[in-house]
Amino acid sequence: MVVIGDVILDRYLWGSATRVSPEAPVLVVDVEREELRLGGAANVAHNVRALGATPVLIGVAGADAAAESLRRELHAREVDADAGVLSDPARRTTLKTRIIAHHQQVLRADEESREAPASSVIDELWRRIERALPDASAVLVSDYGKGVVSPAMLDRLLPEVKRRGIPCAVDPKEEHFLRYRGVSVITPNVAEASQAWGRRIRNGEDLIEAGFQLRDKLAAEAVLITRGEEGMSLFTSEGHAHFPTRARKVFDVTGAGDTVIATIATALAARAPLEEACVLANHAAGLVVAELGTAAATVAKLIESLGDLPVG
Question: Residue 312: which pLDDT band, with cuts at 50, 70 and 90?
Fold first, then answer.
């Protein structure tokens, strides 16, 4: 499976806060440990790998210490970082640092480049995409708005994927929404869907109207609107279906969208029907929101969660 998008490194500083700084009215966190995790398209690829598929990750990192750490984390999770993750000395690797005190996030600091890569980098990205497409069982676009997924890239990629008959799943960013035309499935959350629709989705009637109108506007096979604790709603040519949340507890929703899109794309790559893919994604998301920070649903955990489904 080809995963294209913005790779991110998540850094967590864990500690305790027992006093206020004398320099400013802010908490002082005594850091006890540091943890690095994958974010963005890198976390999507991690989720794909955890589900037993082989991702080809295509993106851009800087030529800095964060990039080295990102590659180590990818290799540790058996995701190949050499075939498609380019080094661009002109960019900073996207690094999100979260400070956690007593299991609560108290601060996030972002280091990143948001502009599009240089044309030479974009050309090399496209060459790597072209090399990967002949063997692709599915294509997944993870757009975090950091510059890798651009209108020019989408206008080139999506018609080629459609021409080859490869299933394509997109986790969207608002500013590119109308560029995701003709995809197999797009997975906006309620806020993203509201912005693309042009009005706030306030109730079930709005949701249904927005879902079908967005599907028509994009000429997409399906639109899946993720709704947090209210589950997910799928809109296709055959109608709509709702999937209540499978989360037993919600500790942190960070990365839940990565898990949803990775699970759906992996299921489509295995030629599962879309509704079955959504059931799997719903269970997988329920597993990862029970953990703090980005996480992945393994095959074993997913099978265990599916065991709760009624028989017959």
Answer: very low
- pTM score: 0.90
Instruction: Match 């499978």 to its residue by tokens.
Output: 246
Chain segment 43-82, per-residue pLDDT in tens: 999 999 999 999 999 999 999 999 999 999 999 999 998 8
Which CATH number goes with the domain that contains 272? 3.40.1190.20
Amino acid letter for position 233: S
Catalytic residues: 258
CB 117 within 8 A of CB 149: no
Instruction: Give Dmax (Cα) for the chain.
Output: 64
Give me the residues paired with residue 56 across strands: 2
Least Cα distance to 92 among 68, 59, 67 occurs for 67
Phi, psi of 128 (to 5 degrees): -70, -35
What is the extent of the structural domain holding 241? Answer: 40-59+114-306
Question: The tokens of 155 are what?
Answer: 């206008």
Average pLDDT value for residue range 200-223? 96
